[in-house]
Amino acid sequence: MRRDNQHWAALSAPPGRRERCDAQGLAEYRRTFLADNRLSEHWTRHNRTVFTIAEIGFGCGRNFLLTWDLWRQRRNPDEGARRLHYIAIEANPPQRAELSAMAAHDTELAPLVAALCAQYPQPLPGVHRAVFDAGKVILDLWWGPAEDVLADLRQAAVSLVDHWIADGGRGTLTAPARLPPRWDQPWHSSAPPASVLVLGAGLAGCHTAAALARRGVTVTVLESGEPAQRASGNAQGVLYTRLSHRHSALTDFALASFDFAVRQYRDDFAAGRLREGLDGALCGSFHQVQDRRELDRMRLLLTTVPELAQVVDAAQASRLIGLEQHSAGYWYPQSGWLSPPAVCAALLRQDNVTLQAGCGPLRLMRSGQHWQAVNGDGQVIAEAPAAVIAAGTACNTFTGLAWLPLRAIRGQTTQLPGLNALAPLRAALCHRGYIAPARAGEHCIGATFGPGDCDPALRPEDQAYNLAQLTAALPTLAKALDALEDTPLAGRTEWRCASPDYLPLVGPVPERETFIQRFAALRDNARQPVAAQGVYHEGLYLNTGHGSRGLTSTPLAAELLASQLCGESLPVEPETLRALAPARFLLRDLGRNRI
Ligand SMILES: Cc1cc2nc3c(=O)[nH]c(=O)nc-3n(C[C@H](O)[C@H](O)[C@H](O)COP(=O)(O)OP(=O)(O)OC[C@H]3O[C@@H](n4cnc5c(N)ncnc54)[C@H](O)[C@@H]3O)c2cc1C
């Protein structure tokens, strides 16, 4: 999609300008729409798992709501498609209040409208995925002008669309012709694999397992140690995103993944999969910002997305978090904190997911049509047609993956007792480190940042550093925090796994040598387009490099991988797909004549 630095200018039209939001006459419209489209006949005859519908002009979502309602009532569980994927394109996203108005006119649709409102994304350009009915129904909302969005969709999804709804359900649109091959497109419309191995039970592996399990895939998670004991083992972490007045793949992914993660975790709390206060709380987070110019630039842009973030002064921040602040910054009302081990445990409890822990370091071998997981004794402990390596910093120890440019960054966190002085804290506070409201009587504060530091010891000077940073962020609490100076505090040392461009590595694993040969022309001219398809190991995928933001980035990364593995339309734009693809580093190194 075309973007400029003003892509924040959120897409929304004044309600009066919306053409199809008139909820009056819905009953009549329902009859015409259903008769015209004969959807239940189509999906009952459908011979693939997913039935995909695309619509230009989401309006107030009535076509989607009617389709979803029909799907719930009339889908035959023994025949035809098992899941519904609805893709809608809209240049002027409706506001949540406009959607709610639909419920007043059609009580039958009211529960669906409420569910849609709960999963409703920010009005930022790009694609936003909403997941309903435990993954049986997916809605992709593409906010943007139809011509731009169709150009993006053509690259990935158009061949997957089974039914087009256009002109309010009265016309159809021909799928555009095929495009030339590209390096980032190894997947194709195919049946989902019956089973998948996921190596690593941290946030990346557990979210991947859950996203596949939602699609009915049988997943075996294989963990060398115990789940969520490495980077995902801290008691508390904050849901971060990244704001910038400049457009970049990094900011786009940070915003898209934050929006998706917030909606997914909110759903987990609402459904009781996560427990408020113990497993986390979406209580908001305040981020101190010292750069006044940046705040001034963002203030105006953020007025269009107040649910995402707001610029607040120190007095407002103090009221929001419950403790005195001397700094202005960003307030993220939907953010908060989570306990990564609790998130992993909830994900592993899903149907279709089996955990095998304590396996020791595993390696993968290809045998016929399967990937086999082999333990230190050379025994095959599991096999499946597809495998996802989600082993954090250990990903480049797998055969053929030593080239992955992963960096291990040491971080030490400190467990702080729940002091009376900290009791009023009711939201997360991010300064050079972070603190959240207490969990089980303690705050997990942190963290140090040590690229290239391999020391596993819990260092007293790092504990002192964490306390000093907190004192600087909350100067009025200096006395209470100073009193802890001589108290031995517990803590943890772990390593974040980062990539050189700070984006995770998510996608199919390239066959390095063949890939390099095919794109060798880039050595002469890094900018010339090479119209060739990428070469990838069949059924082998990677999910790592989540740096300091794994709580935020892993849900969307997992959804992307599951969509790729199952041959579905993708939940990210083509530009983001390429920015995340592990093969990007081979292209980069060819262009720089390093390989
Ligand atoms: C100090 C610190 C503070 C952080 N704070 C935050 C925060 O506030 N907010 C936030 O969003 N993020 C934070 N992060 C980052 C976040 O924790 C990570 O991005 C995330 O945990 C990465 O998850 P992962 O699954 O990729 O890696 P990991 O959690 O490391 O999981 C990888 C798993 O693979 C297993 N494994 C390795 N090799 C093999 C093998 N050969 N076979 C089988 N299994 C294998 C490992 O045992 C491990 O369990 C922080 C990280 C650190 C270190």
Secondary structure layout plus pairing:
Elements: H1 26-37, H2 39-45, E1 50-56, H3 62-74, E2 83-90, H4 96-105, H5 110-118, E3 126-132, E4 137-143, H6 146-156, E5 163-165, E6 195-199, H7 203-213, E7 218-222, E8 237-238, H8 249-270, E9 280-281, E10 285-288, H9 292-302, E11 310-312, H10 314-321, E12 329-332, E13 337-338, H11 340-348, E14 353-356, E15 363-367, E16 370-374, E17 380-384, E18 386-389, E19 407-417, E20 428-430, E21 434-435, E22 442-445, E23 450-451, H12 460-473, H13 478-482, E24 491-498, E25 505-510, H14 512-518, E26 536-544, H15 550-565, H16 574-580, H17 584-591
Helix pairs in contact: 1-3, 4-5, 7-11, 7-15, 8-15
How do you describe this structure in short?
This protein is 30% helix and 21% strand.
Q: Indicate the proportion of strand residues.
A: 15-25%
Q: Level of helix content?
A: 25-40%
CATH architecture of the largest domain: 3-Layer(bba) Sandwich
CATH topology of the largest domain: FAD/NAD(P)-binding domain
The tally of helices reads: 17
Low-confidence blocks of residues: 13-17, 168-173
Helix/strand-derived category reads: alpha/beta
Strand order of the largest sheet: 14-7-6-18-26-25
Number of domains: 3
Shape: globular
**Radius of gyration, whole Å:** 24 Å
In round numbers, the mean pLDDT is: 91
Largest sheet: 6 strands, mixed
